[in-house]
Amino acid sequence: MSGEQQNRMQRGLKNRHIQMIALGGAIGTGLFYGSAETIKLAGPAITLSYLVGGLIIFFIMRMLGEMSVDEPVSGSFSYYAYKYWGDFPGFLSGWNYWFSYIIVSMAELTAVGIYINYWWPNIPHWVSALFFLVIITIANLVKVKLYGEFEFWFTIVKVAAILGMIILGIVLLISPYHATTTGISNLWKYGGFFPNGIRGLLFSLSVVLFSFGGIELIGITAGEADNPKKTIPKAINQVMWRILIFYVGALTVIMMLYPWNQVGLEGSPFVTIFSKIGIPSAATILNIVVLIAALSVYNSGVYSNGRMLYSLALQGNAPKIFAKLNRNGIPVTGVLTSSAFTLVAVILNYLFPGKVFIYLISVATIAAIINWMMIILTNLKFHQAKGKEAKKQTFKTPFYPYSNYISLAFLIMTVGIMFTMKDMRLAVYILPVWILILWIGYKVKKHL
After folding, report:
1. Beta bridge partner(s), residue 225
2. What is d(CA 25, CA 347) in angstroms, rounded to the nearest whole number?
3. What's the pTM?
4. What span, in angstroms and rounded, lies between the C-alpha atoms of 253 and 162?
5. What is the C-alpha to C-alpha distance for residues 302 and 144, in angstroms, rounded to an integer?
6. Three-state SS at 98
């Protein structure tokens, strides 16, 4: 990839955009609606699950950040895998990332239909999905700065909702009129901190990891950040405290307010807390927030997929038409093609209303794990290629190479855990089939 080709993309993402994109990547619908399910698996120990999972994700993000700061390009780890490992790893990384975000985008569009039905139950899911697909796609075709603005304000709403919940929860905890079931003793009172044992903790890890899916988008923005050597390290280093505040903090407050085995029995924990302080429109407020969270993830999906196809085209791993940019530096063909594939979600919601979401989520989880494994292995290759120069990097992977091996072992263990879970097993079966499809696609490309 030549410098001339790379520089055609405009560096229109400011520091505040990068920070909010990074922050938004750690906050999704999994926290707002999925928290009750993870608490059922691990009880109060879910906070430990997020700490352990968050630490692994932090290591992986530092590995990606090390390469992104050294060479800030669009296409991120696909480009690095191609350069430092080989043709097929680059091919696999890029196309798997593109596929994973297509699946995630389909899932989020499906969720959008569910949220819209809260206000207008007669609107079919496919109509809502199609409407927002068109709006978000148009926004991504104008300027990269517009994408950054969308994501900036989307994330502001999500952050405000979580911080509001935490603050209001603390107010309830210290209030002299709080319920008798409220208190810090809830963290160990009902069956202990590990009510379902280590098994429950381990089972929760796969769901926890899904919550972090998409956080690697920080690396994708490197090619269009106005000062990547400053903004990328800052964004990545803040990942850990975000996880502490927005996941561990929020869930700890929720479980101190209510016994863990009652969380989610009356709907979302967030709705329950807002209702408890006398806000009658709690469900409406939450629905607005989760709708924005879903649109935020879809907005990021459209952005990242267009850039990944652009990078694959420059590598020769995708048709050259995807390497063309408009006058604003937008890979229009890549964006439109990705949206066209995401349109399948609209069709699926039309054909199978109400049955699509769970299948998409399981496949998206395994695709995210492949992405993270490729980042870990590519970082090892990066260090081998750089040799002694790697020690001079301004933004290093902490505890290299031990953090690489520990993170890789953790992800392999998670895949094994997923195989023992009924709802996740299908995705594990799909894993070797998907890699075989990519291998065949690579071989066909080589012979063309």
Report:
1. 13
2. 27
3. 0.84
4. 11
5. 11
6. helix
pLDDT-derived band at 423, boundaries 50, 70, 90: confident
Question: Is the separation of the CB atoms in 157 and 289 below 8 Å?
Answer: yes
Averaged pLDDT of the chain: 81
User: How much is the pLDDT for 16?
Assistant: 67
Specify whether the CB–CB gap between 309 and 318 falls below 8 A. yes
**CA distance readout (Å), 178 to 35, 257, 269:** 23, 9, 17
Instruction: Report the DSSP beta bridge partners of residue 13.
Output: 225
Higher pLDDT, 394 or 432: 432
Assign 3-class secondary structure to 126-143. HHHHHHHHHHHHHHHHHC
**Is 10-441 a CATH 3.40.50.300 domain?**
no
Q: Is 278 left (phi over 0), alpha (psi -120 to 50) or beta?
A: left
Residue 5 has pLDDT above 80, yes or no: no
- Number of residues that make up the chain: 448
- Cα 305 to Cα 30, 116, 321, 337, 355, distances in angstroms: 21, 25, 15, 9, 25
The token duo for 164 is 């509001």
Assign 3 a pLDDT band (cuts: 50, 70, 90): very low
Neighbours of 229 (CB within 10 A): 14
For residue 190, give the 3-state DSSP assignment. coil
Q: Which residue bears the tokens 């209510």?
A: 258
The CA radius of gyration of the chain, in Å to the nearest whole number, is 21
What's the confidence (pLDDT) of residue 17? 64
What residues does each domain of the chain span? Answer: 10-441
Burial letters 234-247, b for 16+ CB under 10 A, else e: ebbeebbebbeebb
- Alpha helical stretches, state H, 71-119: 77-84, 87-119
Q: Is 291 helix (H, G, I), strand (E, B) or coil?
A: helix
CA distance 336 to 332: 6
Cβ–Cβ under 8 Å, residues 75 and 310: yes
Residue ranges of alpha helices (H) inside 122-227 are 125-142, 144-174, 186-189, 197-211, 217-220
